[in-house]
Known about the structure:
By secondary structure, the chain is of the alpha+beta class. It contains 5 helices and 6 strands; from the N terminus they run H-H-H-E-E-H-E-E-E-E-H. The chain has one domain (27-153): Roll (Nuclear Transport Factor 2, Chain: A).
Amino acid sequence: MKKLYFPLLVAMIVVTSCQSKPTPVSFDPVTAKAEITKALDDINEALNSRDAKAFLSFFTEDGLYCGTDPKEVWDKAAFAKTITEMLADKTYKPNTKVDNREIRFDKDGNSANVIEQFNTSWSKPVQVRNTMHFVKANNKWLIDFSSLALIPENKDLPKITKVLKK
């Protein structure tokens, strides 16, 4: 039995030392931020030009998408139906212009949390915040989570509460 220890030890050393080490993928935050910014600009352009197909191409099939109403929690199919109907409605005026955008990457640069804040014709004077989670898949940044929320200023909350109590 003792005769087997040395050959096994040598074999183990040879096997472990000959394994190739994965090359770490370098993360360039400047390039990644530019890529996500371009994707966000393209998403907003598609929305403002009523191009549902282009808009939806930035969302993953297995994502979770939430609107401003508590009942608006969608998978991709329901989200696509809602967006397509909304953009087909000629009375709806998107005209989204982003006032604030923040992008934060995970340490490896494979995903990012993003917020955009803006006013729209349907939410004035209350701002809207879109919180998104981006993942990089096949060299393209895609959204696998999105949640829209109305974000009134804290000073306006008592007024809103008073109106809603009536």
